[in-house]
Amino acid sequence: MTFVRIGGVPHHVRVTGSGPVCVLSAGLGLGWFDWDPVVPLLAPRRTVVRFDRPGLGLSGHARVAPSLRAEAGRISRVLAAALGGTPRATVVGHSLAGFHAEAFARLYPEQTAGLVLVDSSVEERPRVLVPRGMRTGGARMCGALLGAAGVPRALGPALRRRLAPTPWASLYGSRRVWRASLMEYVTYGDVATELARLRRDTPLEPGLPVTVLAAAAGRRDRKWVARQRDLASDLGGTLRVLHPSGHLAMRDRPAEVAKAILEGGCF
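^ thats the sequence. predicted structure below, dont judge the formating
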């Protein structure tokens, strides 16, 4: 376990294994431990870097609301701080962090060996209706009220265990984690809109290996898989459907996720 200070915030980072680098970033409100089933499959052949965004997992309190460029830059700074340099890495993003991973690949092509999106968020026509300041202010107020009422401690660990069993469920009894999760939720539209603009202005490096993994549990997921297929096509990548799988595909189908990561880099 390591802590590196970025922007004045202690970031929890875990580095496992040896070989070419891959960096794993989990979705909204999730933590480093959500990748646990995948890491043993990667570590014999990869240096695996996991980290918690501010407020989540074991990282320190978030000081500012998230933005796309800041999150892409965070990945670069985590790699530099944890590994003592800026190696080329296969960057892997799950759900909301798929936005961050794609932005990293566009903004830091010299550091990107491949891009793997694990049931990534997809927004074809992103927009925001309420001003950002109102949303972030409301999230801070809501987080304070819920914390004062004891809601995180009373409900957080149980809700997390229902999502997926983990010995780290107690972290979701923390006001810090609830505030950070709320802030990621209310700025989701901003991040999606930023990515839409970035796609217009900053292309991916030609020939970059891109893999999109779509989780599917049944026929009702056909529209979701179609959206993931369109995403893969837009990025010039390949689609792999993980079936059956819930949204936490790295837990439901760890072997297939690990295989995609191992095959998804150009070093």
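The mean pLDDT is 97.
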